[in-house]
Structures are given as C-alpha cells and as structure tokens.
Amino acid sequence: MNTVNILGLDNQRTQTTLASLQQLLADFQVYYTNLRGLHWNIKGPAFFTLHAQFEKMYDDVAAKVDEIAERILTLGGTPENRFSGYLRQAEIQEVSGVDTADGALRLILETLQTLIARERSILQTAAEANDEGTVALMSDYLREQEKSIWMLNASLQA
Ligand SMILES: [Fe+2]
C-alpha cells in the first residue's frame, strides 16, 4: 500500500500538491543561496546587524527546505536535490552583487511576495484535497512571512 493511501488522501489531488511543493522547494533553495550572498557581500553602516540578520534568515530557510523536502517524501514524492533542477523550476532568480542595505531588504521583500503567493496557492490546493498537514505547514510559513513583510517595510521607511 502506498503512503498516500495509508494517509487517506486522494492520489490525484496529492500529485498536484506535490508538483507545487517541488516548485516551492526550488524557490526556497534559490532564496537560500541569495541570502548567503547578501550575508557575505553586504556593506555599509548596518553591516554588523544585517550580516547577522541574513545568517538567521538563511538558517531559517535551510530548516524550511528540509521540511518541504520531507513533506514531499511524506506525500509519496521524491524531492529534487540537484541545483540544476531547482534552477529549471524556480520562479525566484539567482541574484549577485547586491551589497546595500536598501537593495538587500527590497530583494527579500520581493522574494517573500513570490513565496507567499505560491504558498497561498498550495494551501488552497491542499485544502481541496483535505491535506491538513500541508495546509498547516503553509499557514505557519504564511504567518511568519507576513510578519517579516511588516518588519521589512518598517525598516525601509525613512
Ligand atoms: Fe558567515
């Protein structure tokens, strides 16, 4: 018996959720490497604060990458692990050369906007499939990221 049947989920609907979770995984992987770039390259008076902040953020994203991959496995899928595969699927673009506080915070804000849109759509697909586990994961991410957007917006006000 396959895992999805044991979980009592509809196989076809779960395939749709899996495809969108794969895309989310790809987006988070690209976001992770972008955050490492920001952590390394940031310059200016806020260096110490932002350098540390970006490290916290990429650690958080690394944990989410693992959660998403393991959710894919839980639903009977196989998470992509090749970066070439991520780049084919990701909506978020690789970025280099961002070294200002303003540029970095705006990049993060835009990235979160993309992630939130994808997570809302996954949440809806998963809800239609009665996949409460995926719904709960997406709603946790949404709540955290919505708060981050408030904070980023506040820090960008002059
Ligand atoms: Fe470091």
Main beta sheet strand tally, sense and closure: none
Any ligands, ions or cofactors bound here, and which? fe (ii) ion
Order of helices and strands: HHHHHH
Helix content: over 70%
Question: How many helix segments?
Answer: 6
Strand proportion: under 5%
Brief overview:
The chain contains six helices and no strands.
Please supply descriptive tags for the structure shown above:
Ferritin, binds fe (ii) ion, 78% helix, elongated, 158 residues, mainly alpha
How is this structure best described in words?
The chain has 158 residues and is mainly alpha-helical. It has one domain (8-156): Ferritin, core subunit, four-helix bundle (Ferritin, Up-down Bundle). It is built from six helices and no strands. Helix 2 runs antiparallel to helix 3 (47-74), helix 2 packs across helix 4 (83-89) and helix 2 (11-41) runs antiparallel to helix 5 (101-128). The protein binds fe (ii) ion. Fe (ii) ion is lined by residues 39, 55.
Lay out the secondary structure.
Elements: H1 3-7, H2 11-41, H3 47-74, H4 83-89, H5 101-128, H6 132-156
Helix pairs in contact: 2-3, 2-4, 2-5, 5-6
Bound molecules: fe (ii) ion (FE2).
